[in-house]
# Entry
Amino acid sequence: MKSLAALPLMAAALIATTAKAQIQQARVTGGMIAGTTVDGLSVFKGIPFAAPPVGKLRWAAPQPVRSWPGVRQTVAFGPGCMQNSAMAKQMGADVPLSEDCLFIDVWTAAKKANEKLPVVAWIYGGGFNGGMTSVPLYDGANLARKGVVFVSISYRVGPFGFLATRDLSKESGHGSGNYGLLDQIAGLKWVQDNIAAFGGNPAKVTILGHSAGAYAVSMLAASPLASGLFRSVIAESGANFTPPQDAPWAGTNFQTLGMAETAGQAWLASLGAPTLEQARALPAQRLEEAQRAPGAPRFWPPLDGYVLAGDQYRLWRQHRFNDVPVLVGSNSDEAASFGAKPILPAAFETEVREGYGQKSDLILAAYPHASEAEATRASKQLRRDTAFGWPAYSWAGLQSTNGRAKAYVYYFDRPSERNPDGSGHGQELGLVFGNIGLPGRAPAAPGDREISQVMQGYWINFVTRGDPNGAGLAPWPAFTAADPRVMRIGVDPGAAPIPNLDKLKALDTYYAWRRDGSR
# Structure
């Protein structure tokens, strides 16, 4: 039996613990929800923000959420959207997969609903074919403790999120193939309508994405459907500024609607389901497995003319975009994470000549490849620059030239004994989230926690006021086309000229040629 003297101390401890996180219930679109309190945070997981996209709603824009009676317990992640289960487990996610997957998760340190904290809305990556909010690396607790409300939005991936066909375009009346982006927009509308209940300020929302998520937030920055839903953007390793293909060529996954429709229609026919009624009747698992079969299309957001109004490079030049501050960047050796293989100089030259057409000599000159070691490095660098480096550079230049809001660019570079060429795709994520040394991932390296504090400082400053600069941090100049400077993070930290500028300028010429019809 505990002594009477201990009771006041126990009561005080209980009161203090409760005071750290007082938002335990909230009324949201659909009804009342109850979350949990963990280490001073209020956490709500698995909040529905749209009707289940199943049956006739497969390949339809997200519909209003269905109301529920009483108080819904939102204490566990909802199912992940349909994808390769092996890949999901590899990311550490431990939830079932389902078409019924449109859920939002919230972490907040607010003690009451009127605090008006800035909001981070996270869009996960996964090549538009995978990803989910329940990946441990994406846990928002550490960022929430820095004074923001952290929100994680799920969206459909693979054929469920990005199948385009002529029949689907006819059915909608305005194109097809961007259901996953429409999910994100619906999630951001939910944030506008509900985040105040969690102590957040709907006027101070920053969308943050990595990889495919970074491509997605750049598309939202271009989409008229997302106007007014956020006030700043952070894009880590990705942006959608290459010209759309109407036939396959190197350096982009972006397709015209016609190209995507043709591929999607043929794919459904190959499954014995040429009509929408037949296709919607197919088991979800059959569709998921079929997207990984030889000859299946690459499911990626197409230029539908509705969610995506046009070639983003041209939209910025025409001042047709959501003009908000942007923080973008890439890593020094992105392609290392995708299993780079040794390649001989002759093979590298063949690949470039086959993919880059009349501009192949320009590309080959920009990427030295005289030896096997050089050719292997050049191959990685070309993949890095086309997918991640050039899009960030392009976006920042277009924003600084055509927008009122500023652009800030980072370059993450932490070579190691394992990878002397630099940092692979996603290696900055654990530092941004403060989730370092998680089970199944690389252990914490010397300096990780210090760099994490610096990155979180820049990111939180940007979320708070649209500018990463602040006390105790090295000055980060805004990017301009005349003075393209970046913030180096890792080796030789601090503001510096953008690396690999000669390579990026060669790609400028290549993409301009493609944009002009390859003439």
